[in-house]
Design brief:
Elements: E1 14-15, E2 18-30, E3 33-42, E4 47-51, H1 52-57, H2 65-78, E5 81-82, E6 85-86, H3 88-101, H4 125-132, E7 140-143, E8 155-158, H5 160-165
Antiparallel strand pairs: 1-2, 2-3, 3-4, 5-6, 7-8
């Protein structure tokens, strides 16, 4: 450890579903920086190695099993998965919501970043499904007016050709 710094002992501490068992190793990217990694036992029975800072900040709370459990629960709630694979309809809905609500999404600047929103009713998949029905083969979700948000009156299932003819010019906002 660098002079004047000490290692915080996390053995026996619990972080979410993780119980710290022992220090796994210390990474030293430079003489002044050290990053301890801890061997943790997850409540599911798996072991994982986690950086101490991630435990402290609360960004890692399980071995990954909890994220997987939440994903499976989300898909199984509405019945749009088979063998862990989500349906095309659910994927269209999920993609729509993400690009309008998550600034970290690669397409957010074209959607949420320019004010395109998903109507409140459609934030729940079951409502989207009731309004739009199953995604037909060869079609994807399209907004009739590209300057308005996603809602029942402004959306349709369209072919790729229909969507190509319905694009807004990139210079306009």
């Amino acid at each position: 450890m660098p002079r004047g710094r000490h290692l915080v002992d996390r053995v026996g501490h619990r972080y979410g579903l993780l119980l710290v068992e022992k220090l796994a190793y210390v990474q030293r990217p430079s003489p002044l920086i050290s990053r301890p990694y801890w061997k943790c036992l997850c409540d599911c029975g798996n072991y994982t190695i986690v950086r101490g800072g991630n435990l402290q900040q609360g960004s890692t709370l399980s071995c990954g099993c909890e994220k997987l459990r939440r994903q499976k629960a989300a898909v199984s709630t509405h019945g749009h998965s088979s063998g862990g694979v989500i349906s095309r309809t659910y994927n269209s809905w999920r993609t729509m919501v993400r690009r309008c609500t998550e600034p970290t999404n690669k397409d957010w600047f074209r959607y949420g970043g320019r004010g395109i929103k998903v109507c409140t009713r459609w934030l729940k998949f079951e409502n989207f499904l009731a309004d739009m029905g199953e995604r037909p083969t060869g079609k994807t979700l399209d907004r009739k007016d590209n300057y308005k948000g996603y809602s029942k009156v402004n959306c349709r299932w369209a072919t790729y050709l229909q969507q190509r003819h319905n694009r807004r010019s990139e210079g306009k906002q």
